[in-house]
Amino acid sequence: MNHGKMTELPSQQAWREKVTLCIIIAGMMCCMGFMTFGLKPALCPDDGQDVYTHTFFDPKDHTSVLYNDDVVVFGNIYSFSDMSTLLASTILVNLTADWHGQDLTQLFKPATDLCSDYIKIDPALCSVPNPFPLSLPLQPAKGMPCPSISILSALRPKGRLAFDLSEVISHTAPPHILTAFNGHVLNLTQYFARNKFLSNYTSIETELEYIVGKDGTYGMAQSRDRLKAVMCLQQLYMVGYVQQPTAGCAASFAIVTIVSIIVVGTVMARLVIALMFHCFLSKKMTSKYATSKRGRSQIPDQDKEPYVICMIPCYSEGREGIGGTLESLCNAKYPNAKKLFFLIADGIICGQGNEKPTSEICKELFTIDPELTVEPKSYESNAVGKKKHNMAQVYAGKYKDVPTILVVKCGNKDECEQARQSDIGKVKPGNRGKRDSQLILMKFLSRLEFKDRLTELDYDMYSKIQAVATSPFKYEIILMVDADTVVDSACLGHMIDAMNADPHVMGLCGETQISNKSASWVTSIQVFEYYISHHLGKAFESVFGVVTCLPGCFCMYRIRYRGEAQPVPLIINNHIVSEYAADDVDTLHRKNLLLLGEDRFLTTLLLRMFPKKKMIFVPEATCSTEVPDNFKTLLSQRRRWINSTIHNLFVLMGVKDLCGIFCFSMQFVIALELVGTLILPAAICFAIFLILSAMFSGKADPTPLILLAVTLILPGVVIIVTVRQFEYLMWLGIYILALPIWNFVLPMYAFWHFDDFSWGETRKVNGDTTGGDHSNSGSGMHDPTNIPSRT
Question: What CATH number corresponds to the domain at position 119?
C-alpha cells in the first residue's frame, strides 16, 4: 500500500488501526523493558537492600568495618558529624577521628536495665574502649552522667546495620562470635571472653553455646528464663539486624520468580510433552502404513479406505513444480482409484519465467477426456463489485491412472475483454486468490451435502467427477497440497491412517521440509525454524488436539464426521463456509485474517466451531518444498505469516473450550504465544544488551540470561530424541546466529506493514507491477442474475 497517497477512506482507516496496534505493541515492549531492567531498582534499590539497610562486613575480606563517615549505636547508623555535635552539647565529649566507623553502643545508658537479675552494672560506667590501645576510651566528661539512649531521638538514622544470615553462620570465633535472635544480631565475643555471667544457669549457657553461628530465636524462646536472659544479652551486645528483604524486594523477587517459573515451566512443558508425543503417541497413529524393514509399505484393504480429494491450487507455478507435485501424489502408496486430483488454476496467469499461462501448463500435464465438452460456467467468487461474478472452465481426464479435474478460472466477459486490450499480467482475468479456489470445492461439497441450489459450475464439476471417477458424495477426505510441493510416497497413507485411527480428528498436517537448504544464506537460516516449528510447536499442540495452524501447502481435512446418528459436516459446514467466504473485510483485523493467512484462519474457524474435535500433527508424513532464497521474498512472506498469526491467535484466545489442564491449557499457551510474538523485537534487543553487559561489565542480572539459554538450548534435545540427525545441530547454530533477523527485523517490518495486504514478492507474474490484494479488486455493482442456479 502506498501510504503517501491514502486518499481512500478504507486506506486511512487501516492506517489508523495500524498505528494504534503499533502503539499497543510499543507499550507491551516498554512493560517488558521495565520488568527486565526497572522492576528491581524501583522496588528494591541498592542491589537488593532498601535505602535504610547497609551491610556490615566488607564483601572482600569480611573483617573490615565500613562507614568511615558514620558511627553505630544499637545497630543504627548515624552520621559521624551529627553524632559529634550531639555528644559535644550533651556530655561535653569531643568525638575524635579514632571513632570513625565504630560501635558506640556502650556509651549510652538503656532506658530500662534488663540485666539487673544477672549482673550489677555501675550506673556511672559508660565507656567504649578505644580501637587503638594507647588512646583514651570514649566516655562522658568528668562529672557528667552517662547519656540516655533517648537523646538519640534528636538524630535521624541513616539506616540500619544489617548482617546477612550467612555471615552470622560463618562467624563463630573472635573477633566476631555472632548469633541471631528475633531479627537482631548479637556479638557474644566479650561475653565468652570476659564475663560469662550466665554460667550458673546451665540450660541457658548450654543453649547459648549451641546457637553460636545460628538463628537462636526458636531455642531461646522455649522458656521464660531463656527469653529473659537473651533480652539482657541483646541490651549488652546487640550490633545490628539480620538482613531481611523489604516488602519491595520481596515483591520484586516474587514477580521475577513467578514470571521465570511461567516461562521456564511453559518451555519445559512444551519440550516434555513434545517428546512424549514423539516417543509414545505419534507411532500409534500410523501403524498400517509404516514402512517395514524390507522397505515395503503395508497397504490395507483397498475397499476399506476412504476416497480422497487431492486439491492442488495453482497460480503462477511452472511445469516442473506442478508436474513434480502430481507425480509425487500419483506415486503415493495409496490406491489410485481412491484418489481424485482436483487442480484449480487461479486465473489466466503467466508466471515469471514461464512461456505459457499456468492453466495451459496444467492442461498439458494430464490426458483430457475429449468427449466431455468444456465451456465457461458462472459462479459467485470472493470479490466485490462486478468481479463477484466469475467464470471457470472444467476439464476432466486422467493423470496416468488417477482421475483428474482441472478448474480454470477464466474471468467474466468484461475481464476477458480487458485482457485482450491490455498488456499481459495487468488484468489477470479470473484471478480471485487462493481462498476463492478453496471455496469453489468447499461450497460445491457443502451444497451437495445440504441439497442446496447448485451453480452452473457446480453442475459441471458434479457431472465430470461422476464421469471420470465416482460420485462426489463418496469423498470423505480433502488433502490440500500447494503446486510446488513434493510429498513423500508414504505420506498419504500415514495421514489417512491417522484419520482412521481417531474419528474425532477433523484435520491434520505433516512435516514440511526444505528441499533447497543450501541454496543461500536465506534458505539456511530457515531450516531449523521449519524443523522446530513442527517437531516442538505442532507436536506439543497435537497432544491437546489443538494444532493452531495447518499449513495450506500440506494438510488434510475430514469432510464429515460419521460418529453420530447423523453425519456431522465439518469443513463443509454451512457456518464454516459462509464465514470463510466473507467478503466484508472492512477492518484491518478482518483483512489480516482473510487476505493474508487464509490457511491459518480456516484452522481457527474449525477449532472455534468444533473445539472438542482434534487438529493433530503426523510427523511420519513428510513433504518437501522450496523456500524463499532471497531476503526480499522472505521478508514479504514472513510479513504475511507474522501478521496472520497475531490476528488468528487473538481470535483463538476467545475459545474457552479448547483442551488443556491448569496453566497449560491451550488458551493460556495461545495467550502466552501471542504476547511472545508481539514483544520479540524488544526481547532480542534486551538479550543482546544483557549478553554484552555480562561480557564487558560482569554486572548483568543472570535471570534473563538463564531464561534465554534454556529457550535456545532445549530445542537441541528435540533434535537428539526425534530425527537423531546431528546435522540439525549445525542448522540450530545458524538459526541462533540469525536470531536478530527472526526476532527483530522480520517482526518489526511486519508490524509496520499491518495495513499491507498484498502477497508481495512471493508469487511473481509476468507484467504484474501492482502486487495488490483482492479486498478492493472490483468496481461497479454485482448483478446476482448473472449467476444462475438450480436445485
Answer: 3.10.120.10
The structural domain count of the chain equals: 1
Does residue 169 lie within any of the structural domains? yes
In this structure, is residue 550 part of a structural domain? no
Element (H, E) at 241: strand 238-242
pLDDT digits (tens, 9 = 90+) for 409-451: 998 888 888 877 776 556 789 898 899 999 999 999 999 999 9
Cβ-based neighbours of 724, under 8 Å, separated by 6 or more: none
Average pLDDT over residues 722-751: 87
Domain span at residue 95? 53-244
Q: How far is CA 452 from CA 422, 559, 576, 728, in A?
A: 39, 17, 16, 51
How many angstroms from the chain centroid is the CA of residue 650? 13
Closest CA to 314 of 427, 396, 430, 466: 430
pTM to 2 decimal places: 0.77
Residue 263 φ/ψ, nearest 5 degrees: -65, -55
CB 541 within 8 A of CB 617: yes
In a domain, 772, yes or no: no
Dihedral angle sign, alpha carbons of residues 323, 324, 328, 331: positive
Q: What is the CA radius of gyration of the chain?
A: 39
Characterize the bridge pairing of strands 76-79 and 70-73: antiparallel
Residue 291 lies in a domain: no
Tell me how far CA of residue 308 lies from CA of 10, 286, 623, in angstroms: 41, 17, 18
Strand partners, 408: 345, 393
